[in-house]
């Protein structure tokens, strides 16, 4: 027998519990069948099929998935809610892991999808929308693993329109966009690129008037009417809609305690910390200079960064280095070729894991090899002993004059009691210039 013939016979054998016309049991048009009759019709033994036929049984052969002609949407929604409640009750009554229970669970999923479709019918929506500095882009993904940041409900990509902010990755249903009150976090990053550097600066629920710090809904520690959840970054309390128990590494704990354990933060803090992760805004020697006494890796990284800054002038004036674009090896950490004291939170995380030390040492070796092979003419000869190889300021056994940047062997520089020879020559030259001008 062909599939269409089987489907027609199957449909004829399954009464429609939501049909408003006569359905064979004597109910007249406009009357809803009694609750127990609806349940018996939906889940009678003759309607059950094997698991191999479950898809056809639920996806194609259910008449109550199609809207009856002449009915109203509101009525459909009420009937679907009734069927969903019956499904829930039946699932609890049926034996665990039985085929009938599995069929009922799948039926419940389809009923909920249909209910959601009726509540949120597909509309023609613009591809881009701007709201509270959010730049929303219409999504084409059909994934059902996303959650709306506004209503905390699942986004059913198959039947719902949804948007994502290209700046802070805020996701929401199309129908929830007009309810958004949170501005884009990226605008805060652009206008206020700094961290809260106090560890969990709690102010107390009484100072918050027992309201969520963001949406101002009522909260309490007892969970009535809503549970108050503390954000470890801001120290404030939030409701369950604004705080999903997401975790993130808190900068204040890293800088003061060298602690990298993720802590619970609210949604806005999580997005802010994610966007700030690679921004070099932490000046450690001012915030906590003692950290260098306890973290040896930081001392090593600081020395490598200082050497790279000494190498930078060689690359700027070297044609081969410019063509090879050697400095682009640090394009992900551009601040490393600009200063030696600013760090991003990602830098500190990589220092703790050991990744930064390995990668920076490898780049340092590559840079030094190029300079010593191709820029040898720009090196220095120790003027104190006038012996040895060509010296460069980034060599570990050298010292650099702070006044004229001349390079010497470290032992020669510190053992010599006289001044720097190059500084002496420059001083004498400046003194001779006025006398020469007077003679002329």
End-to-end separation: 119 Å
Give the proportion of residues in helices: 40-55%
Arrangement of strands in the largest sheet = 1-2-5-6
Sequence stretches where pLDDT stays below 50 over 5 or more residues: 6-73
Tally of alpha and pi helices: 16
**How does the overall form come out from the CA principal axes?**
elongated
The major beta sheet can be summarized as: 4 strands, antiparallel
Oligomer: single chain
Percent of residues in β-strands: 5-15%
The residue-averaged pLDDT reads 76
From the alpha carbons, calculate the radius of gyration and give it in angstroms.
Answer: 36 Å
Element pattern in H and E: HHHHHEEEEEEHEEEHEHEHHHHEHHEEHH
Q: Work out the number of β strands.
A: 14
Short recap of the structure:
By secondary structure, the chain is an alpha+beta fold. The protein is 41% helix and 9% strand.
Structure commentary:
It is built from 16 helices and 14 strands. Strand 1 and strand 2 form a beta hairpin. The protein is elongated. 22% of the residues are buried. About 15% of the residues have low confidence.
Describe the secondary-structure layout.
Blueprint: H1 3-12, H2 35-42, H3 54-59, H4 73-93, H5 99-119, E1 128-131, E2 134-138, E3 146-147, E4 154-155, E5 162-165, E6 171-173, H6 185-191, E7 229-230, E8 237-238, E9 246-248, H7 251-257, E10 263-265, H8 267-276, E11 282-283, H9 284-287, H10 291-294, H11 296-317, H12 319-324, E12 342-343, H13 345-353, H14 355-374, E13 398-400, E14 407-409, H15 410-415, H16 421-439
Antiparallel strand pairs: 1-2, 2-5, 3-4, 5-6, 7-8, 9-10, 11-12, 13-14
């Amino acid at each position: 027998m062909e599939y269409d013939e089987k489907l027609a016979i199957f449909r004829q054998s399954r009464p429609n519990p939501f049909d408003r016309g006569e359905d064979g049991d004597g109910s007249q048009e406009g009357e809803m069948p009694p609750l127990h009759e609806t349940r018996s019709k939906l889940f009678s033994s003759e309607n059950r099929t094997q698991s191999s036929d479950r898809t056809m049984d639920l996806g194609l052969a259910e008449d109550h998935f199609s809207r009856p002609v002449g009915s109203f949407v509101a009525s459909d929604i009420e009937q679907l809610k009734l069927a969903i409640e019956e499904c829930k009750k039946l699932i609890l009554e049926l034996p665990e892991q039985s085929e009938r229970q599995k069929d009922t669970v799948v039926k419940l999923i389809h009923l909920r999808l249909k209910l959601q479709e009726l509540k949120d019918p597909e509309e023609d929506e613009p591809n881009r929308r701007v709201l509270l500095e959010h730049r929303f882009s219409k999504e084409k993904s059909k994934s059902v693993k996303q959650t709306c940041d506004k209503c905390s409900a699942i986004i059913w990509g198959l039947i719902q329109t949804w948007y994502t902010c290209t700046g802070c990755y805020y996701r929401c249903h199309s129908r929830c966009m007009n309810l958004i009150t949170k501005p884009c976090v990226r605008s805060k990053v652009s206008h206020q690129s700094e961290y809260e550097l106090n560890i969990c600066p709690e102010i107390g629920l009484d100072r918050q008037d027992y309201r969520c710090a963001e949406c101002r809904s009522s909260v309490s520690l007892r969970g009535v009417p809503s549970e108050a959840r503390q954000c470890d970054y801001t120290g404030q309390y939030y409701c369950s809609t604004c705080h999903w128990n997401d975790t993130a590494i808190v900068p204040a704990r890293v800088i003061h305690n060298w602690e990298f354990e993720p802590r619970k933060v609210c949604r806005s803090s999580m997005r802010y910390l994610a966007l700030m992760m690679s921004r070099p805004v932490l000046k450690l020697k001012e915030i906590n200079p003692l950290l260098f006494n306890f973290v040896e890796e930081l001392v090593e990284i600081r020395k490598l960064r200082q050497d790279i800054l000494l190498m930078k002038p060689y690359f700027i004036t070297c044609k081969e280095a410019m063509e090879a674009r050697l400095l682009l090896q640090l394009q992900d950490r551009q601040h490393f070729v600009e200063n030696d004291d600013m760090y991003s939170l990602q830098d500190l995380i990589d220092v703790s894991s050991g990744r930064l030390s390995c990668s920076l040492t490898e780049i340092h070796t590559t840079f030094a090899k190029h300079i010593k092979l191709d820029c040898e003419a720009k090196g220095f000869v120790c003027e104190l002993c006038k012996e040895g190889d060509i010296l460069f300021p980034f060599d570990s056994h050298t010292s650099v004059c702070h006044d004229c940047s001349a390079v010497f062997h470290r032992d020669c520089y510190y053992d010599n009691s006289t001044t720097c020879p190059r500084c002496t020559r420059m001083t004498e030259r400046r003194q001779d210039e006025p006398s020469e001008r007077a003679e002329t």
